Amino acid sequence: MPVQVDVEGELACPRITWFIDCATKMITGVAVTPHAPGCCGGSCPSHCPQASAE
Q1: Tens digits of per-residue pLDDT, 1-42?
Q2: What torsion do the CA atoms of 19, 31, 11, 44 make, to the nearest 10 degrees?
């Protein structure tokens, strides 16, 4: 089930990106964005032409 969150009054599908150090197998960072990585900023991939093309 997709999750949507309120971002400045609009529903958005958040994406979680994990940054992993392969040598130590440790998570070194995490980013939560309200759109697909590389997306033009649409609220969900179906609304973002760049994300739909990926």
Answers
A1: 678 888 888 888 888 889 999 999 999 999 888 766 555 555
A2: -40
